[in-house]
Amino acid sequence: MRTSDSGQSTSWLIRGYACLLAFVGLALTIGGASLAVQGGSAYYLFSGIMWVASAVLVWRRDPRCGWVYGAMLLGTLAWAIYESGANTWGLLPRLAAPYVIGIPLLFNAVRSGRLQPPEQPQSVVWRIVVGSLVVAVLVGSLSHLAAPAPTDPLRQRGIATKAPDRLAQPMASIARSDWPHYGNDQGGTRFSPLTQITAANVDKLEVAWEADVGPFTGVRGTLQVTPINVGDSLYVCNGHNVVMALDAETGQERWRYDMSGSSAPTGKPCRGVAYYRVPEATGSCAERILATSQLPELFALDARTGRPCTGFGTDGRVPLLEGLGEVPPGYHYVSSAPQVIRGKVVFGGAIMDGQYWGEPSGVIRAFDATTGRLAWAFDAGRPQDHGAPAAGESYTAATPNSWAPISADESLGLVYLPMGNATPDFYGAQRRPFDDDISSSVVALDAETGSLKWRYQTVRHDVWDYDVPSQPTLVDLPTSSGVRRALIQPTKRGEVFVLDRETGAPIKQVEELLVPQAGHAPGERLSPTQPFSTGMPSFRGPKLRESDMWGLTPIDQMLCRIRFKKAHYDGTLTPVAVDRTTIFDPGYSGGVNWGSVSVDVDRGIMMVNWMRLPSIVEFVTRAEAKTRGFKLFDGTTGQGGGTQPMENTPYAGTPGPFLSALGMPCTAPPWGLLTAVDLGSGQVIWSKPLGDGRDSGPLGIRTHLPITMGVPNSGGSIATRGGLTFIGATVDSMFRAFDTATGEQVWAARLPGGGTATPMSYQSAQSGRQFVVIAAGGRAALKTRLSTKLVAYALPR
Q1: What is the average pLDDT across 445-467?
Q2: Looking at residue 239, what is its pLDDT?
Q3: 196 DSSP assignment
Q4: Structural domain tally of the chain?
């Protein structure tokens, strides 16, 4: 009776296994046929047929099932090596599932339904298996070597054999031991001259203090601030309109000011505040903190007490909506720290993406840092008029804005602004000449008057949302013709432009290259060429191929390949089509984003954290958008599902990341990298994946596996004279230190939330200890852990 029950149970298990093989086989056959029709690989179709054949043979207890499945595995191995070479992440989805699922076929009971050993001697079988594997590996390897390899523009300037030594003429750097600006200096080098923490002792770093800086109520995940340090205080803001001063030694709160007033905070991130000392002033508000609320308003607060400076604007505040016309709630706010130069506080602002043509103006404004009076305005639509609009008029609507951090050069009297687009981002037929003139550019304005000194455009007529997201980094760059005052401008496109910051002329070679033109929306206009910074490494990645598509299993990888083949994609800067989806690579999150770069000014090394994450965009007609229920952002509910109504244009858009059915990127890791570049030669010193997979996984399920794979990142790095690069940014909620010269990870610590911010470092005036501080708020959009903590690290006392 037991034997009968056992046999019956085994029979059901075998039939269940056959059903599993059939299910996978049918999925691969049907999907493979669709892919083959699109001109894609026929592998999935043929392998699917063999899966189904294996399933039928297992159901019938036919011993040939093992040979059929084994033949499929051999073909899969050869094909996988042909497409991926020795790339582990490429081989994994192609081989892991078929080989694991095939394990039961090793047992005779599954192959034949009998428990007796096979008639064929095991030694003969294994010789056949090993010989076949060798042949498959050889065939795959030779095919891979014979196939043309894609060119990675990261290496277009070559690979350095070692990091440069200390420069004979080190770049100018800030000599202070504090951190008085968002990027430490006005030029945003994010370089600290402190040397207490080095590669030799960084492993001893410990948490010195933690401070809960909110938000205390409402939505979390909006703490992305880089604190500034002046004297014995840190100054921070959070995403709920609160500005705070903390004791730099202990992290204890000294004062707090809520800028909300009668308006509820929207939860938009606050990434920093500015410090200003009024010349020759003493007493209250001689030192002040300049910050913006989400309403938005500009505040001046006494740096010692946090009280509003009554001589600034009206009771310490200046409304920022004046002159902007009608501004729906949440459509305009200041997203980055203000910049102070020559007694003026300068800022742009973020405009809600993709809602309608005619959104609020992207005007750039400067206010007197002492009185709060408008000093000047730069309005692209009225470039010669730098005052406020006349009564009843407004700044020009729908002009490009500047939402990223701003840089300044006191000696030249210039302020440098990275510019965005005239929204909506993906369709530009309605844009005016003055929109196209400064869109996706870096512009230099006279800090005294606001007049345009020069502009350099990184994308012409940008319809890819490739606005310039990064703070321009100002360095004095040694060249064969002497030291040049340089500006480094990273971009979402992955191109890094190095310009003369006096004139805007390129220092490193830039070439005009042809870009795709076919398939664009009717009525759209495109530039036939775009600038490519060939004198520097490019962080755009090689042109995507079908074989670059990825997944955790053969099925979701196949589905990504089908989407890729159906989409419109001719390489970087492919225009948006209206009859199918369009792939952007890099995606509209970069490339490089608002974290910008840091520079070791002693050795001329640029540190770049960047991403390889394509985006996919679909245009729909106005009628279809109405049917789908596309709605304008109302200031409270969000846009919903990544839709962009793009009203007052012929189309609406649905932009998003290019993800698989399991919610993972459709391209293989690494998705995030950290790269060191020799600014002198333009050569890559080292490049490695940044971040591990512990907080990532299919369907949003965390794997808890600390396997280095390179994950999405948001935030930036800092470099120190101690030879270290510190960076959080990654979705794994880790804070890391790397040896800047070698790329070796020399320290890491787990944060209470994602470190989606740029860290900073200072030396305490009280104890003389060097602190490294990072906001560990996390970011909900990246599904990181969320927190309200600021964390400071230092060596033990």
Answers
A1: 98
A2: 87
A3: S
A4: 2
Tokens (6 digits) for 463: 């319809």
Contact between residue 236 and residue 243 where contact means Cβ atoms under 8 Å apart: yes
| Token representation of residue 207 | 């948490």
Helix axes 2-37, 88-101, angle to 10 degrees: 140
Mean pLDDT value across the chain: 93
Side chain identity at residue 170, one-letter code: P
Q: Which band of pLDDT confidence, cut at 50, 70 and 90, is reported for residue 261?
A: confident
Res 638: pLDDT: 44
Cβ atoms of residues 123 and 130 within 8 Å: no
CA 182-589-660 angle, 5° bins? 145
In a domain, 186, yes or no: no
Burial class, 260, CB count within 10 angstroms (exposed 0-12 / middle 13-18 / buried 19+):
middle
Rounded Cα–Cα distance for residues 282 and 202 (Å): 41
**Nearest Cα to Cα of residue 304 among 271, 270, 336, 281:** 281
Tokens of 283: 């007493």
Residues 345 and 419 in one domain: yes
Residues 395 and 508 in one domain: yes
pLDDT of residue 601: 96
How far apart CA 412 and CA 163 sit, in angstroms, is: 31
Residue 278: is it exposed, middle or buried by C-beta count within 10 angstroms (0-12/13-18/19+)?
middle
CA distances from 698 to 447, 552, 556 (A): 50, 8, 11
Neighbours of 707 (CB within 10 A): 11
Side-chain half-sphere exposure of 113, counting CA atoms within 13 A: 14
Token code pair at residue 427: 């369709």
Return the structure tokens found at 32: 């493979």
State whether 602 and 469 are in the same domain: yes
Which residues on neighbouring strands pair with residue 243, listed in sequence order? 237, 257
Q: Which among 790, 793, 792 has a CA at the least distance from the CA of 215?
A: 790
Is 302 assigned a catalytic role? no
Determine, yes or no, domain membership for 446: yes
Domain span at residue 18?
Answer: 2-146
User: In CATH, what number is assigned to the domain containing residue 538?
Assistant: 2.140.10.10
Q: Is pLDDT of 109 > 70?
A: no
Q: Is 677 within the bounds of a domain?
A: yes
| Assigned token pair, 551 | 């997944």
pLDDT score recorded for residue 217: 60
State mean pLDDT over 763-772: 97
pLDDT digits (tens, 9 = 90+) for 163-217: 999 887 777 777 789 999 999 999 999 999 999 999 999 999 999 999 999 866 6
* Contact residues for 180 (Cβ-Cβ < 8 A; gap 6+): 228, 229, 230, 275
Active-site hit among 379, 409, 425, 465: 465
For residues 19 and 72, membership in a common domain is answered with yes
CA-angle at 230, arms to 228 and 770, nearest 5°: 80
The answer for residues whose C-beta is within 8 angstroms of residue 120's C-beta and 6 or more apart is none
Token pair recorded at residue 439 = 């869109």
Q: What is the pLDDT of residue 115?
A: 44
| CA of residue 88 relative to chain centroid, distance | 24
Residues 65 and 200 grouped into a single domain: no
| Domain end point (choices 146, 178, 210) | 146
- Whether residue 756 contacts residue 779, with contact meaning beta carbons closer than 8 Å, is answered with yes
From residue 547, alpha-carbon distances to 81, 479, 584, 672 in Å are: 11, 41, 17, 20
Residue 168 resides in a domain: no
Amino acid code (one letter) for 596: S
Query: Cα torsion at 51, 55, 57, 59 (round to 10°)?
Result: 180
Same domain for 130 and 210, yes or no, is no
